[in-house]
């Protein structure tokens, strides 16, 4: 495994690799580090589907608002490298901020994620968040020129907006959505779970229980969004729910669920930590 820290080294490496291996496929797994089994599942898929796997580890400042946890975000370089080594990753790209943003980010080219998808749900409380995500993801695509890039369904809105960017800009990369990995008792794995106490983790289980209650109700034939929301909110009683939404793949609210185009999203705050979970139906 090679660890590269500069964009120059990475570009050089990719150019060499492509010249020597014109028919080999490259898989990219973009992460912000503090790797857990959720990230590992993306790496495993890349290893299965591609000849060469690159993991990027970069806590991207442009997707954090000034009041968010950029400084506090867990950073675990050594453990991350061990995980990548064990998973037989080919390259870990771990740049400093100045590598990705040689100029102050306000002096750089930026672009806006489509408003209808970016100003709702997560975007409502995190203005500019998805613009920052697209900025860094596009930079990573251009640097690594992947055949496929792997993203978790855990960050549903992010995944859909990245798919939209790829479609709108005709980017030559296939986005592979990967299922949510959970603890045995159902909590969706997240680097931010590290902020929770044991009690907090127990309370957080209400989120996946609420999604399970919705799945069960759907199986029993309930389709109306209002009824499904009521069922979930009962399970979440006592928890600070920031939003519970039932939307289609364009993130438009649905009155009634439709098979293969429904997304149920829950964001709740437990011990001050924002936790996201969702259900793709
Ligand atoms: P992050 O490091 O939080 O930016 O996440 C990097 C990638 O891992 C994103 O595509 C996430 O959606 C994905 N990811 C994070 N947690 C999970 C999980 N529990 N299951 C599957 N994918 C995940």
From TrEMBL:
Residue numbers annotated as active site: 39 (proton donor)
Binding site for beta-alanine: 63
Chain residues that bind (R)-pantoate: 63, 158
Broad class of where this protein is predominantly found: cytoplasm
Keywords: ATP-binding, Cytoplasm, Ligase, Nucleotide-binding, Pantothenate biosynthesis
Binding of ATP, residues: 32-39, 152-155, 181, 189-192
Residue ranges that the Swiss-Prot or TrEMBL entry lists as coiled coil: none
Broad EC category: ligase
Catalytic reactions of this protein: (R)-pantoate + beta-alanine + ATP = (R)-pantothenate + AMP + diphosphate + H(+)
EC number: 6.3.2.1
Functional pathway: Cofactor biosynthesis; (R)-pantothenate biosynthesis; (R)-pantothenate from (R)-pantoate and beta-alanine: step 1/1
Other noteworthy facts: The reaction proceeds by a bi uni uni bi ping pong mechanism.
Quaternary context: Homodimer.
Function: Catalyzes the condensation of pantoate with beta-alanine in an ATP-dependent reaction via a pantoyl-adenylate intermediate.
The family this protein is said to belong to: Belongs to the pantothenate synthetase family.
UniProt name for this protein: Pantothenate synthetase
